[in-house]
Amino acid sequence: MKAILGRGKFPKNSIINIGGSKSESNRLLILKAQFQNITIKNLSESDDTNVLQQGLKTVNGTVNVHHAGTAMRFLTAYFAAKEGAEIILTGSSRMQERPIGVLVDALNNLGADIQYLQNEGYPPLKIKGKKLQKRNVAVQADISSQYISALMLIAPMLPNGLEITLKGKTISKPYIEMTLSLLKQIGVQANFHNNIVSISSLDKIEAIEIIVESDWSAASYFYSLVALSEDLEITLTSFSEDSLQGDAALSSIYKKLGVQTVFNTFDNSISLSKKNKQLPDSLKLNLTNTPDLAQTVAVTCFGLGIACELTGLQTLKIKETDRLSALQIELTKLGAVVHIDCASIRIRKSTQLVPNVIIETYQDHRMAMAFAPLALKTPLRINNAGVVSKSYPNFWKDLKKTGISCELLKTTP
Prior knowledge:
By secondary structure, this protein is of the alpha/beta class. Helices cover 29% and strands 24% of the residues. Helix 7 packs parallel to helix 9 (294-304).
């Protein structure tokens, strides 16, 4: 499917109902698999969450997570600790290029039985579930926080709980804090202090209903739209000022780009509007804690003619695609001058956008959604537009509500 985008007729204020956070939903599903009396409301409708739900129904056989990296990591840990499970865990060709050795080593050190079926350190995996008796494990913390969250989420089902020592600089720390908060919310004793995460074992919990907050990562594309507009106003539901999600940093990041966020406590919505049109010549951000915002911020800055330097992006090379390289290629098509290294991207100030460019998505949902707001500045096309279903199936429909002209065309395989 191809998306053809351009400027349309803009309403005074559009209201967008963004679905539940994929990050919260996936963590809660692993916890619900252990404690059936957890009720989850506003669950994410993303492909990743659907894949995880289906995977959790399997005890013996093959589970294919396709492109879902979170599902791969969380299910690796879950099945390793589930007695009697015998699973082949696999994914797409790209998933089989994404490293998982740090997590597998940690689990095997705890007594798990996980084998590589093809390449050492990468899926597919053969997992035989066992009772993991050991309590202590050390994990490299500067590669992916999902390895750590995967271990944290299975800690309540381990007979002796779990103590995780984090080695190196911890990246994406808000996601670890999110996992910790959800564990505490259901009644698990857990703490994170001096690079050590300690979580107690738990047999049962009181019945609890948890409402998943809407996805701040998905909200980023509407922040970008407002930033790139003259006077666009958008209301997003349902968001909290004291969010568990690290990407809630959007409100402060985009304030620098002229977007005002008003938190409406009466209905848990946020109202976005363009207020400050005196923008800086350049923007420098360390996104170690919020790497999923990098693509959106980079495209916004380019569209506004602002130079930017984004650092702390070492995880982007092992995502759905090598996101730094993909950004460089696609922004260069549009006329940008871009420099990347292993953990950063720098974009020179530019006032010219090449029109009618075709953006490739590289099987990466965030590439499609991050570039879409540029339709406010220049007509463009986005190939493989259906990839947004990975995290935000209704994205193109919601984009139209803001006034963007969006025509979706089926393409032949």
